[in-house]
Every structure is written in structure tokens, then in C-alpha cells.
Amino acid sequence: MMLPRSPDLEAGTKRRKTTNRPYPRSGPANAPPAGLSRKNFHHACRELRIRRSRSWFLALVCLLLITLLASNGLPILSKGIPRILLPWLDAPNHDNQDYTRSVYKPRKEDLDLGPTHTRGDFASWPLESGSKPEVDPRSARRFIAYLPHSGFNNQRIALENAMMMAYILNCTLIAPPARLGTPLPYRPSRTLEQHHLISAKKDPEECSEFLDYTPPECLGHNQFTLMPWDELIDFQPIQRDLGLDILFMRGARTPREFLYNLGLPEKSITFLNDRELYQYRIYDTQHLDNETRPSSRYKDGWHVEHLQGVLSTSSAIHFGTLFGSGRLRLQRPEYVAARTRISQGMAISHGAILQASRAIRTRITEFSHDRHLYLAIHVRVGDRKFKGTAVKNGRSLWWQLITRLGISKETGRVLEDRFLQKTRKSKRKTAILDSLPGRFIKPWYNLSQPYYPHERCASPHRDLGSAASYLGIPLFIATDAAHPRLHPSLAIFYETFPCTFVLGDFPDEIKSLVALHRPGDVSPFGRFLVPLVDAVIAGHATHVIGTQNR
């Protein structure tokens, strides 16, 4: 039976063997030299054997390393080893980095001067072919950058916030391109930057340079495209009015790479990293900075004067996310006016998008009494945030719409009852009515004058009086639903508004847009512009209501 290893047991066994072993008559073959005891002699021999074994082991290891280096096999071997066993692969190359801490833990709680990328030699990457540093790090020019994420609307909100910060801090804005198609969801800023890098790789094998696995972002390159913002929107009026300086990125570089290519050393960039989507808010008034609001989704706050102080010692501030309609809490009149100007100037100006939207608007207004009037709603049901409440949000939008048309709640209940009876669904209108704002909502129209709809748009609910005639106004639904006519959140609109349209009703008008090519594209990129047509049509409606970002 095998006994467990025990130093005491093994020592006792050895002592017994040594004690009971008889010596040869002629004396021991390996007798100790004169003046050296037998015990010390055996100890010296054992030490010699151990040293010889170590020497042979080290020699074999050196031979193996030389073989791997000669065959370029060490990088291949390292890919199969867990990264926790190879800490130098993730160690940032920064003089101020505390290497005794976790690799991804900032030196300070929020402000960090170290890189967020797993490649420690990021700062030593070569510049683009033929490019030269454009900025002297000692110059007075300052920059801000950020990491975009999520869908187009969220990217637009982040860009507006970034433009506002550039205005407040008097900086040059580095604007990453818009990502159209499959969105890149929010992640903590350090991880988000990595996924921006790997999603730009054409070959999935290139992703292994950054991560130990191949994430989905590496596999769906035909599911998205990158487009500079100034190709979608004309920023010149905003820049002229507010004195904004914006550098629009092109291609798949990250803002960090862009700053490096401008000639900024890494130590001159301050990174304001985040670990949660709503981690920090930015204020312009001191009492708001100190204010604690349990209902606020933001946990921390930064005063603009603090950020101005950061730029006194840094050439750039690199934010993580800047998404959020409430991210900037500004009260100074100058800032409020600038924010309004930015928001008003963010209209799509891409020629092909405008051409397609004009053609569709012409088709819609054919069913209007004056060839101009139509309504629009924007219903978000595809995002994870809105999927669970899609039907409730759709019903809330429906109530807002008929209230704006001047239809009374009593008539609205009748319309909803008819819809529920027709679809054989349980009556859930009470919860929807309770969620509507109690304040008076001024109607868009004077119902004392009936509306005379197109014959195709005549309401089947004419028995409810002249108010029901306004249900014949053409309605356009901008939505991210894959099959709008089958989606339960939109069914009540089709039931009560006879002339309800969606983008899919106009395939001929968007055919030329879908076929658009750019130099170097393998497949047409125009399909990624189609959702923007949806937004432009809704934005040009006589009246529009959108899903609230709750």
C-alpha cells in the first residue's frame, strides 16, 4: 500500500536503512576522507547530486528556448497559456504605472494616465505611412476624445455632448466615425476600447493579438460600416457660430491612435475611465456638484472647472462614454444657448438620404388634403432596453397621439375598446391611462373644424363625430421593428389610422440608396443608410412624437 509522503516518515525510513545496513568486511567502497565524518560525507554527496540535476535541467530549458526562438514558436506557444500566467502581455508601458496592482485597476479611482489596451507598446506603434506629427506637445492646443457605442441615436447624443464639452473647455474635438449597422454595446471604457480595436480587424486571426478568444465583433464585418460624421451632417454652420474645432476621424483607428498620430505622447493624455454607463455627470454650477439626488442614475460628478484644471497639465482628456441626455447638467445661459444651437444643427444632410426621404414624403402626402400634412411617431422596440415594454410604450404613444389630435379620453376609450374586442385581448387600458401626464396637453388642431381626409384614409369610426375625421391624417411610423405590420406594439395604430405607412412600403424609393458603393467596399454600404431615411422622414413631419428614453 502506498503511504502518503511525509518528511518525518521518509527520514525515519532512511535512518532505519542506514542503521541496519551492514558494512562489507573490507570496509565501505565510498569511505569518507580522513577527518570527515560519515554523516557529513553523505550530506555532501547528496548536495552534489542535486546541483548536477539542476544544471542538467537548466541546460535542457535553455536548449528548448533556443529551439523555440529559432523556429518562431514562442508566440504560438504563448497563445495557449492563460494570460494570468503571462502578466507581461498585459503590463502597460507607462512609467507611472504601479505594477504591483491589478493590470486594469487605475492608479487613481477615475483619472488614469496609463493605457487601456492590452498591448503595452501601444505608444511605440508606427505612424501611418507618410504621416508626420502635427501637434507640438508643448503647444497650447488641447484636445478631448471619447468612445462611442450603441445605436446611431445614442452615438449622436454622445457626439452632441462631446461638442458641448469642446465648447466649454475650448478644446479641439476628436470625433470618431459613426458606426452604422450592428451596434457595439456599452462596456467599461477599457474593454470598450479593446472591442473597437478588434471589431476593426478584417481577419479573425488578428483578434488573437488582443484577446485570447475570437469575439462576435471579429466575425460580422459585413454587418456594419464606419462613416465620418461630416459626411452625414453639415457641421460648418455650428462650427462657425460656436467657434468649434473638430477633427473627424476616418477609418477604423481609435481616438487614442489618432492622438498618437498627432504627435501627443501618452503621458500627456489624461484618461477619464468609467466602469458603468451612468458613472459620472458633468456640472457647471458648484451647488449642483454637491447636490445628492437619490433618484439620479449618475453616481459621481465632475465640475467643468476641475476638467479645465486637468487640461492645464495635460494636452488631452480621453473620456469613456459620453452618452446620456442627462450627462451634462448645465445651467449657465451661455452653455444652454450653445447646447440648443448644437441640437438644432444635427440634421442629416447626406444627399442620397435626403433624395430618398423626399421621394417617400411625396408619396405619403399624396393622401393629405393639402399635399403637405402628415404625422409621425418614432417607436423603439428592437433595443434590449425597450423590448420588455414595447407594447406598453406603443399604447402610451397612441394615447399621446390621439390626445394631441384633440380627441377626448372618452372617445379614446371607445377606440381602444373596439381595438381590444377585435383582437380579442384583455382590456389593459387603465394602466396606460394612469401613466399619461395629468397636465393639460394643448391639441394640435381645432376640432370645431372637421378634417376632410383622402378617400383612401376615411376613418371607419366616423360614428364618433368630427373628431374621428382627424384619424384620416397620414401617419408615418419610424421604427426598428423587423416586421412592423406584425408587431403587437403597432397594431393599434394600424387599426385606428387608415393611412399608416412604414419605410418598407416604399421599396422603389430606396432602391438606388441601397445600391450605393464606396471605393474599396466589397458590398454596397447603402443598406446601412436606410434607417437614417426613417429618421429624416419622421423629422420632417408636421408633428412627431417619439419613445421616451426611460
Automatic annotation (TrEMBL):
<keyword id="KW-0472">Membrane</keyword>
<protein>
    <recommendedName>
        <fullName>O-fucosyltransferase family protein</fullName>
    </recommendedName>
</protein>
<feature type="transmembrane region" description="Helical">
    <location>
        <begin position="56"/>
        <end position="77"/>
    </location>
</feature>
<feature type="region of interest" description="Disordered">
    <location>
        <begin position="1"/>
        <end position="36"/>
    </location>
</feature>
<keyword id="KW-1133">Transmembrane helix</keyword>
<keyword id="KW-0812">Transmembrane</keyword>
